[in-house]
Design goal:
Helices cover 42% and strands 12% of the residues. With 409 residues, the protein is of the alpha/beta class. It binds flavin mononucleotide and iron/sulfur cluster (SF4).
Length: 409
């Protein structure tokens, strides 16, 4: 049985700012030069855990270059990707670790306001999170001149309205400004012109938790795990047809097989592995031939699979691939913001064709159009939602056409 790691999850269920060891990372940070804090994150090789894998150290460095009096830090807890629940676990079991990461970042880049953007479905946590913030205020870990430093910073909570697209950072910001949650054209980037046109750093919940664990323990401890190109550990959410679904912290480099069979204790009812989707439903299918691929940015890249949010949805041999794809496309149709035609219309048309394919009564035109529409969405959609919505379908057409095009007439 492979063991999971407790680096980011070290303080699960025991973190408190007034316990011995509480806020050790922040205590260490305020005795460091700001450039050295950022340099430590650069050396850790940490990439954003929200899906876009942007190097976190580089983002902090770019953010520090903006010297406006008002500067925002937003912690993205929208977590709308199906199968993804790592941020929920972090906020439930170690909220202080998340807030500490925001504080360290605020100190390093001189930010003035912090906001936790919490998905509407997580509002049941809001009282506990507010209590944690009040507790921090009572210890001067938030407020004016925190722990006698020059940092004055507070964190508030903004509740989303339950839209997947609002996880995309510019839509998130639009929604916070009271507008419909639709993506902005970039540039300007949010680092320069974000919330209320002020410089804004947006990072994922797990990115902030990892920042606090790295600064607490030193980057050298972090890079003892993982691979050269994917140093460290990652909290994954393993779900679907495995015996033991859950959020697990794993070192990069473990194979997908080890994650499913050792950590997830195999597939339900002894069924065989049909495919998995990594990063929620926005990526291509991971097929049996890929199961020994190490879970790392570079190895997944080799098989054309983005790591995304790090969710692993396992699908067993009892499932029909067309039923699965229908559920995926229905999700994207529901969540499309409607701003651009390829995504708004494409998801609708794909669902129509999928319904005919599921009945086994489809035309020759359908077999051509399904791929044409999916590719148009991939290349012409305005944002990542529409660009990745047909990824599962396109890989299924490429690798298992016999399961997609089955006539029943
Ligand atoms: C459709 C869509 C949904 C997204 N949803 C989330 C989300 O729920 N949480 C998140 O952290 N990032 C999400 N992102 C990525 C964010 O735009 C952004 O890259 C991220 O919050 C940056 O944080 P990081 O650098 O720590 O990963 C989403 C992107 C897209 C295109
Ligand atoms: S791809 Fe277009 S329609 Fe789809 S969510 Fe993005 S902007 Fe909205």
């Amino acid at each position: 049985m492979k063991k999971t790691i407790s680096f980011i999850t070290e303080n699960f269920n025991k973190s408190s700012p007034d316990l011995v060891g509480g806020f050790q990372g922040f205590q260490r940070a305020i005795n460091m030069e700001k450039e050295d804090i950022i340099q430590e994150i650069v050396l850790s090789g940490l990439k954003g855990r929200g899906g876009a894998k942007y190097p976190t150290g580089k983002k902090l460095m770019q953010s520090a270059e903006h010297h406006d009096k008002e500067k925002y830090i937003i912690c993205n807890a929208d977590e709308g990707e199906p199968g993804t629940f790592k941020d929920r676990e972090l906020l439930l079991h170690d909220p202080y670790g998340v807030f500490e990461g925001m504080l360290i970042a605020a100190f390093a880049i001189n930010a003035s306001h912090g906001i936790l953007y919490l998905r509407e479905e997580y509002k049941y946590m809001i009282d506990d999170l507010k209590n944690a913030l009040n507790h921090m205020r009572s210890l001067n870990l938030l407020g004016d001149r925190i722990l006698k430093t020059e940092l004055s910073f507070d964190i508030s909570i903004f509740l989303g309205a339950g839209a997947y697209i609002c996880g995309e950072e510019t839509s998130l910001i639009e929604s916070m400004e009271g507008k419909p949650g639709r993506p902005r054209i970039k540039p300007p980037y949010t680092l320069e012109k974000g919330l209320f046109s002020k410089p804004t750093l947006v990072n994922n919940v797990a990115t902030f938790s990892t920042i606090s664990a790295i600064i607490r323990n030193g980057y050298e401890e972090f890079i003892k795990y993982g691979t050269v190109e994917s140093p460290g550990t990652k909290l994954i959410s393993l779900c679907g047809n495995v015996n033991k679904p859950g959020a697990y912290e794993v070192p990069f480099g473990m194979t997908i097989r080890e994650i499913i069979y050792d950590i997830g204790e195999g597939i339900r009812n002894g069924n065989s592995f049909k495919f998995a989707q990594i990063g929620g439903v926005s990526g291509p299918l991971v097929l049996p031939k890929h199961i020994d691929t190490p879970f790392s940015y570079e190895d997944l890249n080799e098989i054309g699979v983005p790591m995304g949010s790090g969710a692993i949805i396992v699908v067993d041999s009892d499932n029909d691939i067309l039923d699965y794809l229908d559920a995926v496309q229905a999700f994207f149709k529901h969540e499309s913001c409607g701003k651009c035609t390829p995504c708004r219309e494409g998801n609708r048309q794909l669902l129509n064709i999928l319904s005919r394919l599921r009945e086994g009564k489809y035309s020759q035109e359908d077999t051509i159009n399904i791929e044409k529409i999916a590719k148009t969405m991939k290349y012409a959609s305005f944002c990542g939602l529409g660009q990745s919505a047909p990824a599962a379908l396109l890989s299924a057409i490429e690798h298992c056409p016999q399961e997609i095009f089955k006539r029943r007439d």
